Amino acid sequence: MLFDGKDRKELERLRKQEGRLPPGQSLTLKWPVLHYGSVPRFDPEHWDFRVYGLVQSPLRLSWDEFNALPRIQRTGDFHCVTRWSRFDNQWDGVAVREVLRRAHPRPEAAYVLVHGEQGFTANVPLADLDRDEAVLATHHDGQPLTPDHGYPLRLIVPHLYAWKSVKWLRGLEFLDCDAPGFWEQNGYHMYGDPWKEQRFSSQ
């Protein structure tokens, strides 16, 4: 069970908001923790965030430099490929568009390979990152991200399944062709649209 009895009324209220729950998903008020491997240790003295590949102005930002960027707040739903969804998540961080504005992707750049700690990657079309709701998040629901949920930095792409919202984010690599990331190489769908139930590559 993903919710307690006391949460039933709130869940029923949310379920009445038609059109927000993709097919095959169940609503939860909690935020389950799912990841492969260990939780990496954060060292602010050596951490950096890189933007590279097919960009005119590559970036390499320290933790302090990243936190000096303009900040935004966005609210959106979150859909996990394991069939749970959580509504109205509040994300605080830096807009992906702020990074795009500074890095200036080249005309031939059409895809991004998103890099996390420990070699984890996910592929996302550039058009899906160049959206108002895409965030490089440091906070969730008013609190810093916990280590289990991607502290210190997590990509949030709310209209795709949550494995595309890479935890422990370290870089964005701009490419001219689509390249599968870690989960895509291990059977997950190349795109991951919750509304089309694009869970696995066999679909």
Please explain how this structure is put together.
There is one protein chain. With 203 residues, this protein is an alpha+beta fold. It has a single domain, classed as Sulfite Oxidase, Chain A, domain 2 (Alpha-Beta Complex). It has five helices and eleven strands; from the N terminus they run αβββαββαββαββββα. Strands 1, 4, 5, 8, 9 and 10 form a six-stranded mixed sheet that branches. The model has no long low-confidence stretch (mean pLDDT 91).
Give keywords.
6-stranded mixed beta sheet; 203 residues; 5 helices; globular; Sulfite Oxidase, Chain A, domain 2
Chain-wise SSE layout:
Layout: H1 8-15, E1 26-27, E2 48-53, E3 59-62, H2 63-67, E4 72-79, E5 84-95, H3 96-103, E6 111-116, E7 121-125, H4 126-129, E8 135-140, E9 143-144, E10 154-156, E11 169-175, H5 182-185
Parallel strand pairs: 1-5, 2-11
Antiparallel strand pairs: 2-3, 4-5, 5-8, 6-7, 6-11, 8-9, 8-10
